[in-house]
Amino acid sequence: MLTSFGKFCRKLRIDNGELLKDMANKLGVTSSYLSAVENGKRNVPQSWVKKISSEYSLDLRQIKELKNATEESQFKSKLDLKDLNNNDKNLMTALARKINGMNDDEKVIIKNLLNKKK
Questions:
Q1: Residues 51, 93 within the same domain
Q2: Based on the structure, what is the number of domains in the chain?
Q3: What's the pTM value of the predicted model, to 2 decimals?
Q4: How many CB atoms lie within 10 A of CB 89?
Q5: Hey, how many other C-beta atoms are within 10 angstroms of the C-beta on 69?
Q6: Domain for residue 79, yes or no?
Q7: Contact 43, 76 (CB under 8 A)
Q8: Contact 23, 34 (CB under 8 A)
Q9: Fewer CB atoms inside 10 Å of the end CB: C or N, the chain?
Q10: CA separation for the pair 73, 37 (Å, rounded)
């Protein structure tokens, strides 16, 4: 299934008269790797936003669109937990495990708690 990032890239290629292979070459990867990223089988490498923006001379609106598409397409996220104590690590893990089972109201409550100023 094509991700938001994949849709952005496909449109960019069409607008530039390119094939998947052409964009893959510009990114220094194989066509199959780019295809896997576009279809959500691999995460979008963070360096690609800058590389695509530069290679295709994107304007500010397009860069913002690319960043949004990249964020929407991420399926894995790495968190640096090394400076957290065990209680904080357990809290992060519990939230990650339970978030799919939460309804929208519960998520809003947690978000409001997190955004609350001290």
A1: no
A2: 2
A3: 0.69
A4: 13
A5: 19
A6: no
A7: yes
A8: yes
A9: C
A10: 9
State the residue for tokens 């800058």: 50
**Full domain range(s) for residue 107:** 86-115
Task: Find the CATH number of the domain harbouring 66.
Answer: 1.10.260.40
- Model pLDDT for residues 4-47, shown as the tens digit of each residue: 999 999 999 999 999 999 999 999 999 999 999 999 999 999 89
Q: Is 66 left (phi over 0), alpha (psi -120 to 50) or beta?
A: alpha
The answer on pLDDT for 118 being more than 80 is no
Do 57 and 17 fall within a single domain?
yes
- Distance of alpha carbon 13 from alpha carbon 29, whole angstroms: 16
Residues 6+ apart with CB under 8 A from 10: 2, 38
Together in a domain, 9 and 51? yes
Would you give the distance in Å from CA 77 to the centre of its chain? 9
Same domain, 90 and 65: no
Q: What is the pLDDT of residue 88?
A: 93
- CB of 6 closer than 8 Å to CB of 14: no
